[in-house]
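Possible race condition, two jobs.
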Amino acid sequence: MGQSAAPNGGDALVRAVRAHLSRFGVKPTLGATAPGRVNLIGEHVDYCGGRVLPIAIGVRTACVASPAADATRVFASDLGQRGGWSVGEPAPPGSWQSYALGVLEEVRGLPTRGACGPLDLTIASDVPIGAGLSSSAAFEVSLGLLLARAWGREVSFADLAAACHRAEHDYAGVPCGIMDQMVVAGAVAGHAMLLDCGTGEVRMTPVPKDAVLVVVDTGVRHRLGESEYPKRRAACERAAAILGVRALARADASEIGRLPEDLRPFARHVISEDGRTVRFASCLAGGDLAGAGRAMNESHESLRDDYRVSCAELDWAASRAASMPGVFGARMTGGGFGGSVIVLATHPGAQGLPGAISPAFEREFGHPCRVFEVTASEGARLEKV
């Protein structure tokens, strides 16, 4: 395609090992990595008990560690001088330190057969921050997996995901659903994860070999904890309470008229998106890429018009990509208000996307975008260092 699937252009694990040696003066003894993710469809339904269909992608966050003599210290190497933090120092909600503290505390509280000795930890990442590719979950899960190994925790990927989800929700202050942590922790290469966020049921769906997935990173960055995201979740909770259902995604669409007018668009998106996810998964499993693409286009329209979490750059990129030969569909992915578009295409269609989108995007918005192919990759894993 002419652009790498690793847009930050480096091996996070190699960088983490080097940074650890430079920062702490010893070679790390443990390592773990976790991927970013792209949600193919099922946006803003995970916290409403709906079904989602994400994949893990090739870019990864790495965490390495060595035993420490005193307090646990964390070094976010990509942040340079701003990246040092020790347990016991302040960790304001929404800061990277709050994510680290949350994971440390949640893993510490899991059933154990070992002591929680102090560690020196170094993080490096190739997952773009704020691009809608779940850099936060990659951070949490890579750190959580390493801590689980270091401290003798025996946990399933679902247990690890739940601990990291609590960390993001309770410590970082982001009222997210469980989707990101689940797919980052437990993805299977070559498959999308059909996850029922209401029941926890997981079904792996193979991605056809003739389906090519392309990300358009608009370069517009968001901060979910300070955005409209919490307001959307609160609106959905109000709608579910009025309709008398635990999961808004499973409410009957015919009941939307009972809601106050300001809540109807949000409920309409959530209920219809849950149905689109099931339809998309069926199309993908059956090789009906045209049908899957139509569901993606409908999803973007709903996110733009009903849920109102898109922006001009996302709308432009989705429309431009969807109009290209060999493209089945395109939609924003992630929390919105910036970030990325995911495109489903043929191999020839994918080849034409960088040249058709990148120059025109820069002319339109005055800054570049990145266009790169992604494949369905494996979830978190321990690494040799």
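Job #2 (started ~2 s after job #1):
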Amino acid sequence: MALTDTQLRVVLYEGTGAAPIESDDRLTAVRSLLERGFGVTRAGAARPLAPADPSPLLVVGRWQDAPPATEPNIRWQSFDLPNLANAAEAARSGFAAPTPGAWKPWFPVIDYDRCTNCMQCLSFCLFGVYGVDTAKQIQVQNNDNCKTNCPACSRVCPEAAIMFPKYKAGPINGDVVSDSDLNREKMKIDISALLGGDVYSLLRDRSERARSRFGKERDSDKALAERQKCLTKLAALAGDIPPEVLMSLPSPEEIARKAEEAAAKAKAALANS
């Protein structure tokens, strides 16, 4: 049975039919499983084994007899400390359950108490995360398009109104916004002043220079190196954008087109607000 949307949970069972697990072994087992990202539960005689949720289970114990027969969402395993983590990985694979920690939820949240609907995030984001509703109010419309570990849009918000719950520090992670935080964010909002020109124009101009420089040679490696150099400079100016996000940016031509579309959307939304 494949439970592809539910994480595997490991149960250290010390109830009826199983001997107690020594405290040191239990501590080592729990630590090794937690380090791999597995959820761990200890079940004793007074605690029911059956979970209220449909999570697939690996039940591990020092069985006094043979382990019970496998059930649709439960696998039983004898307690073998050196191989416990590997047994959990094998059970996870057998259930086709998600790999622990393989996906880090990453998405922006708009604080509408602070948001002024200025549309800077809509104009700035190249991945189509933002949009407007029928009332021309800015919204997060495409969470799946957001790039993990990229908080760039929050950096250009003049009111510190964009939060990323998984970010490492405040106020971006949702902490209280202080006056000093707000002043610091307001210093970053003018992208033209920050970059000495529009960010998209900067990329477009450097692309044109690169095309002229390498047009005759048609050296794709040099062209890629030039783009990387441009994106590195952009990252240094615009904030802590991960390199992998920068390299996932569309081509300069697509950037120019998306910039024009985003600017048009923002203007239309502001004109109709």
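Residues 9-95 form one domain.
Logs attached separately.
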